[in-house]
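Milestone M4 deliverable, item 7.
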Amino acid sequence: MSYLQIVDIVTGVLFTILGAVMAHFVLFAIAGVFKKPPCPKAERINRLGLIIPARNEESVVCGLIESIQKNNYPQDQLQIFVIAHNCVDKTAEVARATGATVYEYNNPDENTMGYAFKYLFSCIERDFGTQNFDGFILFNADNILDKDYISRMNDAFEYYHRDSVITSFRNSKNFGTNLISGLYGMYFALGSRLDSHGRTMLGCSTRVQGTGYLINSEIVKNGWPYVSLTEDWEFTVDQIMLGKKIRYCNDAVFYDEQPTSVKIMWRQRVRWSRGHLLVFYARFIEMVSKLFKKETKNRVSLYDITAYIMPSPLMFLVLQVLQAGLMLLAPLFDPNITLSQLLFGEGSILTSHGMIFSWLRSSAFSFVIMMLLAVVVFIIERKRILGVSLWKKILITLVWPVYLALQLPIDVQAFFSRNLGWKPIPHNDQTSFEHVNQPKESDETE
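Output delivered:
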């Protein structure tokens, strides 16, 4: 057996193992294409607290509060809480004017959204008692709700016996503004439908993605402990480790404002990636260990989130570098092999045996698959993704694989980054409750 054959076998086995660990993601994506009937209308009307963290959000926070107040849900069963966190504008003042219960918290050393939640829940426990609420829905200040959002979340909450966290469809207020906001919109639409919906369809736990989720008040009876860069990942891991499930409600839709510049997009994604890595470092060994314990509940969900939390782009990069390095050493073991043959194949002609051609072929295949996923999302969500012209849909589809491929350099930067904080994302979109709830007469707005 030649040196190159040994390298092919060893690296092939490693790539196969890593791919097999994540192969079940394909099943979730397939299941996510199919719609599930809505949860039956709940007889019980739960008392809910609406949680809004806000940092310098005076221009948008009233829009979210208005959409809560206009929701088709008994308003006497709702209480809106705003935490104005490290604000230097009039966020607290304008929120109070709407009737919301507002707390202010200023501590520049505690600058993640998790700290805002932690302080707010301590205030709620002190002044109202968390147990006087059945649950809490956590938002971002720039969100706008569909008119039936809260009732749909309540239906799912009751359907799952108030024992599961309920997350929802994250649509975009500014999907069609430009390419960057459109790519973000695709990221969350695809994540909601092909990821979260698929997992719920197959009985597996999904995860929360930043905002738009309902929790039982029991979860915060002792406070909110998740304060890292990505408190949603921390929270998700803990719930699954405790044997709980996070369910997805496809019929509850909220709208989020997405960044519109490359600079802000990059900064935000590096923060997400760094937080993801920190949770991986802190919890991965514990999660793997729990997989093999007899008393573990929801083992499939735990396996899935353990695979999900792995920094797969970085792991694939390490394997590719290892493979390339080992192959480039081949001339040391066989003088008949040249560098040109290794890179381009026999006779310096592009063949299936050349490293460059093999890389281009696998990249092209991945590129096509990712584009097809974007096409599928635009088709199955055509009634909810509105205000995006046909040419923008085509552009988003073509660039979507590039958006995903950027995760690799983002992960590399996040690996070496330190002292990242929760920096505010500019929110200026003035999309109103009436705009997102206007009758949809056609499947698509051009």
